[in-house]
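fwd from M.: "can u put these together and see what the complex looks like"

so here's what she sent:
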Amino acid sequence: MYSFMNDYSEGAHPRILELLYKSNYEQNIGYGLDVHSEKSREYIRKLIGRQKADIHFIPGGTLTNLTVISALLRPHQCVISADTGHINVHEAGAVEATGHKVVIAASKEGKLYPEAIEAVLKYHSDEHMVLPKMVYISNSTELGTIYSKDELTRIHNVCKEKGLILFLDGARIGNALMSKYNDLTFKDIANLVDVFYIGGTKNGALLGEALVVCNDNLKEDLRYLIKQKGALMAKGFVMGIQFEALFQDDLYFRLAKHANKMAEIITGALTELGYSFYVPPCTNQLFPVVPNHVLEFLAQKFDFYIYKKIDQDSSVIRLVTSWATTQESVDRLIEALPKI
Amino acid sequence: MYSFMNDYSEGAHPRILELLYKSNYEQNIGYGLDVHSEKSREYIRKLIGRQKADIHFIPGGTLTNLTVISALLRPHQCVISADTGHINVHEAGAVEATGHKVVIAASKEGKLYPEAIEAVLKYHSDEHMVLPKMVYISNSTELGTIYSKDELTRIHNVCKEKGLILFLDGARIGNALMSKYNDLTFKDIANLVDVFYIGGTKNGALLGEALVVCNDNLKEDLRYLIKQKGALMAKGFVMGIQFEALFQDDLYFRLAKHANKMAEIITGALTELGYSFYVPPCTNQLFPVVPNHVLEFLAQKFDFYIYKKIDQDSSVIRLVTSWATTQESVDRLIEALPKI
Amino acid sequence: MYSFMNDYSEGAHPRILELLYKSNYEQNIGYGLDVHSEKSREYIRKLIGRQKADIHFIPGGTLTNLTVISALLRPHQCVISADTGHINVHEAGAVEATGHKVVIAASKEGKLYPEAIEAVLKYHSDEHMVLPKMVYISNSTELGTIYSKDELTRIHNVCKEKGLILFLDGARIGNALMSKYNDLTFKDIANLVDVFYIGGTKNGALLGEALVVCNDNLKEDLRYLIKQKGALMAKGFVMGIQFEALFQDDLYFRLAKHANKMAEIITGALTELGYSFYVPPCTNQLFPVVPNHVLEFLAQKFDFYIYKKIDQDSSVIRLVTSWATTQESVDRLIEALPKI
Amino acid sequence: MYSFMNDYSEGAHPRILELLYKSNYEQNIGYGLDVHSEKSREYIRKLIGRQKADIHFIPGGTLTNLTVISALLRPHQCVISADTGHINVHEAGAVEATGHKVVIAASKEGKLYPEAIEAVLKYHSDEHMVLPKMVYISNSTELGTIYSKDELTRIHNVCKEKGLILFLDGARIGNALMSKYNDLTFKDIANLVDVFYIGGTKNGALLGEALVVCNDNLKEDLRYLIKQKGALMAKGFVMGIQFEALFQDDLYFRLAKHANKMAEIITGALTELGYSFYVPPCTNQLFPVVPNHVLEFLAQKFDFYIYKKIDQDSSVIRLVTSWATTQESVDRLIEALPKI
């Protein structure tokens, strides 16, 4: 049984474990003030081209989302999200638990677009309703799709014009940037959004997300707010060391590239065999439409997630590859796939 | 420069790293539903003598405290804590941020006692005040002291009589149980409290606290509440594996014992040299009173925390030992200490 | 200029003012424990046929909604509402500010129905999502429509079967019960819902909603929770006296009946003149579709709310009548209406 | 049985009822945007000498406190209060329920002083603790004492120097300003604090507090935040009309003066009879120390609150007078008092 369920099934890339091992007996300062975290910050700042960015390490995505959103909004302000957004559906009401409404905007293939944001703004007309103040997007999205430079620029423009904070969830930002359809760089992203994070958990780390605050106005007292949400880890250096390993050379990108590559091979095979896709494949998450008998057959050999029923006869499944996905397992999957 | 600042300066015990390494390429189910987490749970259940206890792994102490307290209280209910309690002072208002008042009770050497709890109950007389519903204690305490079986039993009794939930913060429970003054067992604790946790971060793990829910009435839907607070880790198995390493034999206890032993040696030397202590030394946190010139002198060679000024001439400092503290560094500290 | 904007433009029915005046120099106990509040409770208990119901007086609708919902849900639980529900749209995120997600269900003419509730339950499958625990409906609805006994019974049944709390917002319950299409009684409502309120503000009182808790399991400590939300008024007797005036005879019903009667006359005239309605008129809120030139013409003489644009040429407006609407103003409105 | 329990036992001053009656059939705009509310605002602005102050009417004190504090603080910021402060003790955790810790400072006779505030600031040293950002005081205090101009100026100065918001709870501000020991004016208060409120409920209104925002930086979006807390009343004009009646001439001051006068007479008698006071009498709340047999005897004829036991033989009771307290009832109380 091989799992294409997600990209967090295995531990960490060996290079990360090695650096943890190597630095194990050093005495490091707690709470992210250590030299490894600082080195990681320097690597990331260089990469994104912003020497003044504030960078904080937080152990997981939901924790990062709820911390950022509650830190930057006043109580009556809401965050706009795609209906498919992670904060809207899959965080057990984490954002609302901090007091903020998640207001839904229309989306296409998991992506927000300016007109949808503007429609939300227009609808929220007075003090009897919440006040939209932040836009939440993810890249890659929950559907594995990615924003083009033009699309992100247009969202940036509407946010700037309307005074909205643009927050990008980058739990899978490596996969987005390494997509063959991508035309964005880390520098572009840092220029176009106010705050974003670089996901470690889903790209080869044991855990950890690197929160990057580009907008100077949003930096004040964030360590207080991270601490208050329980997100300031005593052994913050455990995350600092991992990001050091990921960014001291191009490991972060190679891992994401590998995951995408594995997905591409599967995509090629599926296409050749006549399968269609619920959304166009771009990154390491694939959403093929499969007949139910194929689904049942595959499920005997592979773990994956059933995304939704299409009709009586077929369903959309989700196949996820990762830094750890082997060529061999991909070959076995392809072998198992019948023509349709 | 050697640090006696805290017990989370180094990485993890090598045995933990080895098990992480060994299991690195396994594919594990996410969110704590994996086999390693399950094995850890079985080890812990056996140790505490409660086959039906629910056990959840959460990455840090503040996150565990805020999750447990907000999960188990209704909005108008408050938690009683010693004035020195971690939730009252050092969590940046994490508990209040979930909507609950932390009500302070008098304490002795960091410990709550039944009369102090009863005084709080008596004072809170009607619906214009919050309703006390939970008692929070830690063992060992913020001052390194420990509860005796009799003391914990008496607190248990008042909680039972008054319908209060008893929650024990065990970030340093290993040090408490391995104290030479201790007469409690893990089984006792599980019998006497409703919910507690076993700290990993401060006893040799990279991160992780094992939350143990003994009282059946408090188990419902806790995974929802852990998820909502951002505390349900995708790679939950990273914590599961570490607790497996700690509890598959007596590693957890040996590590705590070592930390206490190092502290004992320092205590002996300090005593012999004429130093007094702010509270009696029991575990791996020592609070000697030192003249200011000694403080300054020590600070050139060692890192430690200045706890409070006593008077113009002297201060209380905090020295903390850990699983990683070496005999050599202890010797160097002792050598450096002048007689007074 | 006459206003059909809403049903809270005027003060209070003179009978209410008289009773306030008459009892003005009595010394009453604070916080709703006075004899007038108690008398009101007795009148209401008799009316709804439940001697054991708990009744609390709260100054406004949003305050009642946020207090009830946050009092009865655990943090991970959400409330299901029609997309048009007041708590979803027009309370500035009041419910989310207490930590709970408002989950939207499909609705027809402002009303929820069992299949929509069941669809929400089915979708919320695990601990990564919020847990539906309460259903919020209003009667009459935001669109002035009402639930039939059969419809409410079916919602009651699905709630009972699925363990959901059924909460009915009765800000305009008088108008619902006095509708000529209504087949529900106060006793039916008390039997079918767990908790509801009887609106005073919109039916002739200066302010005040009577919160009725029918389900014994939901009564505990509500006075604490009302106090905590700032909803326990020092001079609670000011509300008690008003509800006494409304319920010591049938004043409450006569006021609602009058409002409905005025709306019926307008409905008749509009129908005769060829206007259609966005939803079928039932109570004191009418939603006629009017050509834009009529809208502009009417707006010179009358205040009303523009509900939504239908197309380039026409809009839905909202006309609201109340206990204080005069026959004369209704006549003037009808006179002003052109045929279409 | 006559009650000296509090200053909210009776309805409203007849002049207020008359204005409610007179304007009863006017059609007013909802949510505080009506002409009466606007007139009241103008009267108050003139009185406090600040034409640009924002003024909002909120139905009660706890609701005002929780709304203001949560509106103006970021999540990690706390409010400093005297240990005896209303928000700390008698609001059922209302402030904490909005997410903020109430941090206690030492007080003298119910009053905060600069050194106590500075001690709190000094103690809160880093991001592991909450960040003090607001100072909450009340005038008159919970103990009936008042701030002198010098005392308030010194608190103002420390707040200005340290960047703290100064919030004054004026539920009984009329009694403070009419005290014979007072040297503050409304203009002074408006100059020295950032935000305060003028209590109606305890000075002759049916309900209502006038929230005055002096600091321009704190005005933004307050109507959203008031709405979100359920404090924006549909019939806001009911409060507007009452404050109009109170401030169109000097009614507000006369009512407070009367209450103080009645208290003074009692104070004189008590003093002559040999009673001492727990705190020096200044306003309409008196805290005499009475032997237990006197307490029991008085309790047969009068209602009052027992504040605290002094020792085996005597207790502090609280006697409160109001705008409605009659000379006759004061005479009867004095007659009933035995010499000691």
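replying to her w this: Residues 251-272 of chain B form the longest helix (22 residues).
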